[in-house]
TrEMBL record:
Pfam families: Peptidase_S9, Peptidase_S9_N. Residues 512-721 form the Peptidase S9 prolyl oligopeptidase catalytic domain. InterPro entries: AB_hydrolase_fold, Pept_S9A_N, Peptidase_S9_cat, Peptidase_S9A, Prolyl_oligopep/macrocyclase. Keywords: Hydrolase, Protease, Serine protease, Signal. Transmembrane segments: none annotated. This is prolyl oligopeptidase. Residues 41-393 form the Peptidase S9A N-terminal domain. Residues 1-24 form the signal peptide. PANTHER family: PROLYL ENDOPEPTIDASE. The lineage of its organism: Bacteria, Pseudomonadati, Chlorobiota, Chlorobiia, Chlorobiales. It comes from the Bacteria. It comes from Chlorobium phaeovibrioides. It catalyses: Hydrolysis of Pro-|-Xaa >> Ala-|-Xaa in oligopeptides.
Length: 732
């Protein structure tokens, strides 16, 4: 079986939050200014002149720019470290971490029932790779990424791992300092020995093993000769046979090898071998969730060139698919904004006249599905926060809702494929820890199969969760999740951490984070706004918050903040708003439109200058979500959604903590830098605008545990300081 979704290249980075209670008077902070502007640049877009004051910051290699960033980072670090209460937050996070003997994640189960996963103990900075035979088998350490690190050198992490179906061979992707610049190592599992070859430039590798377990297909980026070339352009899928020189690998699927397929330079080609149908599926990926897929018989791998046949086009509007017994099951919002599941023949697909397996549901979004030997399972999500699980029996066609072990906010299902009956589900809630269960269809029971050690968090037994609908500017009702201590007084004085994302159709489903819940432990309200641009209410919820409709995203966020004020939860001087990556557009524009509504804005690794996004390596592949300057309507939308360009001189802006990672391959570090510099220049409020750039980090993927804790402590302590919590006031 194969299941695939488009690669999300400006991925959401959710950094948890801390707390607040009483309000204290703000103390003025003396900030040292470091000038960097070296002359504005004016460009004309479709007759509209745009002045870019801090264009010089795009030259990250310029010594003056590097010095300015270093000065800004040092100053931000000094201020953040001086916030009372920050050390207490870090100690509490370490205490939480120590309660769990080990944390396991990134689990893969092979046909041979070998379990491969990353595991981290309280002593570890990053996960080590383990395997066991079956859930109850003896655990064996396979690979420790620290073995690659040298003293004072880069820190390596395991980015991903891909075992062969028999579990005897393993492709291990590693990268350093958050760069996501992966290299593939290959291991013989039984001996634990690595093969001699290493394959570099493998950020989008997605290794897929062939039938014999001796070769795998993978994507590799091309070499570039200078900074003017985009390293993400014209990547290729190659076939590698283990134990051979990667220079001998054969190109299988690419713009170069397949000019007849009209592959764009920005497309990311990948090939997956599907053992259920003995087919090769070739994907061309951008951030567009509508799949573009080609198919070829497995035997084509032995031919001098692969003859690909178009299978799925973006016009078919298919977001996910799987194959069973010659039939292609697929998920689509075509004529069903909350999605439906249909099936057609793989050999001669007819998507327009396909058979409906699960129709669109009035009460929620048909979220995901998995196929087993005797059934299909699917999940239904109400507003992204209430998950249900269903089973459709192959023999009878009957549908049964399965009673989950506890009321779940999120549910993630997986199977080993159509030759097995196994079904696993992982469920969680805002105040309930993750649990992974194996389902027994004969007994209709769930048994715990959580590899992570159990832990208890008694301090969170007294939390209240509210799921409410708040009106936006156009009357649309927006889901808003609230988490806080029972007995909270609606006196308008509670610190609120308001988080949002709103992009790529990605839903913010409930998750459990003890460190993030520290915000509630300090008497605050944790608020998650499920704004348009996300996928919580279906496909239209996404498309109503992208490109020309992007303003709905930040207007939804503003509506959520206004609701909290109107209903006595808080007041504007007590709201900190936080977003990451594409969420930088969301919080940056909310700040620009309503600077009076927030005490602090915290964009992390944010896309703060989207008009210039296409000039970055990762920009072109994100055009389907945000738009392009080459189309008038979309260009004007990019200008309108650009937080950096919309900053106005003399405005009383809220305090700001702006962060970036200098190794970030997704959002170039100069985007947050330009935003911070312009905000420092324009704000008349006198509130601090901090810019912290981490030279040893990227977009957040691959961070060590210490970096994760420190980044979260920065967000929480800055937010609590600016929302007036008495324990976080400097000089108090």
């Amino acid at each position: 079986m194969i299941r695939y979704r488009s690669v999300l290249l400006l991925c959401c980075l959710f950094i948890p939050a801390a707390a607040g209670q009483a309000i204290a008077e703000q103390q003025p902070l003396q900030m040292q200014r470091h000038s960097i502007a070296e002359g504005a640049v004016t460009d004309t877009y479709w007759g509209t002149q745009i002045t870019d004051t801090y264009r010089s910051l795009e030259q990250l290699g310029n010594p003056k720019v590097a010095a300015w960033i270093e000065q800004q980072a040092a100053q931000a670090r000094t201020v953040l470290n001086s916030i009372p209460g920050r050390k207490t937050l870090l100690k509490k996070m370490a205490s939480f971490d120590g309660r769990r003997k080990s944390t396991a994640y990134s689990l893969t189960i092979t046909d041979s029932n070998r379990y491969f996963y990353l595991k981290r103990t309280p002593k570890d900075e990053t996960g080590k790779l383990f395997f066991r035979n079956g859930f109850k088998g003896k655990e064996t350490l396979l690979f420790d990424p620290e073995s690659l690190s040298e003293e004072n050198g880069p820190t390596f992490v395991v980015s991903s791992h891909s075992p062969s179906d028999d579990g005897k061979t393993l492709a291990i992707s590693v990268s350093a300092n958050g760069s996501e610049d992966d290299s593939i190592l290959i291991m013989d599992v039984d001996s634990g020995k690595l093969y001699s070859e290493t394959i570099d430039r493998c950020r989008f590798a997605s290794p897929s093993w062939t039938k014999d377990g001796k070769s795998f297909l993978y994507n590799r980026m091309r070499t570039v000769s200078g900074p003017e070339e985009n390293p993400q352009y014209d990547s290729s899928t190659w076939l590698h046979r283990i134990g051979t020189d990667p220079a001998e690998d054969r190109e299988i699927f690419s713009r170069t090898a397949n000019p007849e397929l009209d592959i764009d330079s920005a497309d990311i080609p990948s090939v997956i071998y599907d053992k259920e149908s003995s087919s090769l599926f070739g994907f061309l990926s951008t951030v567009d969730r509508r799949l573009r897929v080609f198919v070829a018989p497995l035997g084509e791998l032995n031919a001098p060139s692969t003859k690909w046949k178009s299978l799925i086009t973006p016009e078919d509007n298919i977001h996910d698919f799987a194959v069973k017994n010659g039939e292609l099951y697929f998920s689509t919002p075509e004529g069903a904004p909350r999605f439906k599941i249909m099936k057609t023949q793989l050999a001669n697909p007819d998507f327009r006249n396909a058979e409906t397996v699960v129709d669109e549901q009035p009460e929620g979004r048909v979220d995901a599905f998995a196929l087993t030997s005797d059934a299909m399972y699917y999940t239904l999500s109400l507003n992204g926060v209430d998950a249900r699980l269903f089973r459709i029996e192959d023999a009878s066609g009957s549908t049964t809702e399965l009673s989950l072990p506890f009321k779940a906010g999120s549910a993630y299902i997986s199977s080993k494929g159509t030759r097995f009956r196994d079904l696993w589900v992982t469920i969680a809630g805002w105040s309930i820890d993750y649990r992974r269960y194996h389902y027994n269809p004969d007994a209709n029971t769930f048994s715990v199969e959580t590899i992570s050690s159990p832990a208890s968090y008694p301090e969170y037994r007294n939390l209240k969760v509210e799921e409410i609908m708040t009106p936006s500017h156009d009357g649309m009702l927006v889901p808003l999740s609230l988490v806080y201590k029972k007995g909270l007084k609606k006196n308008g004085k509670n610190p609120v951490l308001l988080y949002g994302y709103g992009a790529y159709g990605k839903s913010l489903t409930p998750f459990f984070s003890p460190s993030m819940l520290l915000w509630t432990a300090n008497g605050g309200v944790l608020a998650i706004a499920h704004v348009r641009g996300g996928g919580e209410r279906g496909d239209e919820w996404h498309t109503d918050g992208m490109k020309t409709t992007k303003p709905n995203s930040w207007k939804d966020l503003i509506g959520c903040a206004e609701y909290l004020v109107k209903n006595g939860y808080t007041s504007p001087e007590n709201i900190a708003v936080n977003g990451a990556s594409a969420g930088g557009i969301l919080v940056g524009m909310a700040m620009n439109e309503r600077p009076d509504l927030f005490a602090a804005v915290i964009p992390q690794v944010g896309a703060m200058n989207p008009l210039r996004g296409e000039e970055t390596p990762n920009g072109p592949v994100n055009v389907p979500e945000f738009g392009t300057v080459t189309i008038h309507e979309e260009c004007m939308a990019l200008i309108a959604m650009d937080p950096y360009l919309q900053i106005t001189d003399g405005t009383r802006y809220p305090a700001a903590l702006v962060t970036t990672g200098m190794n970030d391959p997704r959002v170039s570090a100069w985007q947050p830098a330009k935003f911070a510099a312009r905000l420092q220049e324009a704000s008349s409020s006198g509130k601090p605008v901090l810019f912290f750039a981490d030279v040893d980090a990227g977009h957040g993927m691959g961070n060590t545990k210490t970096k994760e804790f420190e980044a979260l402590a920065d967000v929480l302590s800055f937010g609590l300081w600016q929302t007036g919590h008495p324990d976080f006031q400097p000089g108090k």
